[in-house]
Amino acid sequence: MATTEEKAQGSQQVDGSDPAIGFAGKVEAKYRELKENAETYPYVWASYVAVYGGFGLWTLYRWRKLRKTEDRVRALQERLRQLVQDEESATAASKSATSVDTASTSAHVSKPPK
Question: d(Cα 70, Cα 72) in Å, to the nearest integer?
């Protein structure tokens, strides 16, 4: 009976609001409690691990797929930006060449007599 009383006193000390225990002691007590529960109900904890682990893996898969899609979109946007820039520079170059040609041909055209 002494061991049962000692366990009861030990659990009261750990669960009590004794300031000497501190944060680390409370964490260790909670860990021991969870460990004992996991040893008592292994199938319940295994199902938790399976379900939440599955959710974690699915989330990781979707996250990586999203990142890959974003990277592909960024690459395509960069290609499109480069094509538009090249097209604009080609258009500007052809306009400037056309304006130079029209100016030079208008200077060589003789004026009709009056």
Answer: 5
